[in-house]
Amino acid sequence: MQTVKVWDLPTRLFHWSLVASIAALFVTGKMEDAIVLHGRIGIFVVGLIVFRLVWGFVGSTYARFLQFFPTPARILAYLKGEWRGLGHNPLGALSVFALLFLTALQTGLGLFAYDEISFHGPLAALIDDDLAVRLAGWHHLLANALFVFIGLHVASIVFYKLVQKHNLLLPMLTGRAETPENESPQPAQGGGIPALLLALAIAAFALWAACGAWIPEPPSLPPAAVETPAW
């Protein structure tokens, strides 16, 4: 066997940062006194998702969406056992896109959510309170669906390790994957410093926008006039 570079460092850092963030969101979401921290982690996840979306176009070979987009032909070839390649296989690619979509939707709902108790999303002031309350309810419901999907994702990784004898975690740690010596796969290329700076800049802008710092403060009402009693 030979080892080939597959995952660049930004992709690996994104992956493990998202894993840690979702775990932290799960814990803080169950603690009433940690709701502020929960919101801040959610904003951080917005930056992570935006970074990955940009990196999916300007990153290295196997981080680009076009490289592993699960077309019907690729899925069919994989189901027939005819697919060969590095990076995400077609079924894994479906999981990646689904997780990105669900996580983005969940964080987006959280930005506008209002639970009428202790949490007011940083962008909730942009919409009606009744709608913000409904979004908070959807945010709670979608969290359950997201965690179920994450459980299936983890189960598939265990299946590949125990049944297929294919370790999917190790390459995401080291950046390198094993391939037979008789194959000549192309190592990951591209995704240099200019691309990284571009992705980071766009992610930083998304963080600023998600914080709601640009929303003007509502005008303060003048103090109510106090009628002077006539003595």
Describe the protein in words.
With 231 residues, the protein is mainly α. It has a single domain, classed as Fumarate Reductase Cytochrome B subunit (Up-down Bundle), CATH 1.20.950.20. It is built from 8 helices and 2 strands, in the order E-H-H-H-H-H-H-H-E-H. The protein has helices spanning 9-29, 35-58, 65-68, 72-79, 90-112, 129-162, 169-174, 193-211; strands at residues 2-5, 176-179. It has a two-stranded antiparallel sheet with strand order 1-2. The radius of gyration is 23 Å and the shape is elongated. The N and C termini lie far apart (99 Å). The mean pLDDT is 90.
Shape: elongated
- The separation of the N and C termini measures 99 Å
Number of strands: 2
CATH topology: Fumarate Reductase Cytochrome B subunit
Q: What helical percentage do the residues reach?
A: 55-70%
The total number of structural domains is 1
The CATH architecture name reads Up-down Bundle
**Biggest pleated-sheet summary:** 2 strands, antiparallel
Number of helices: 8
Query: Mind telling me the C-alpha Rg?
Result: 23 Å
Taken in chain order, the helices and strands follow as: EHHHHHHHEH
The CATH homologous superfamily is termed Transmembrane di-heme cytochromes, Chain C
Beta-strand percentage range: under 5%
The largest beta-sheet arranges its strands as 1-2
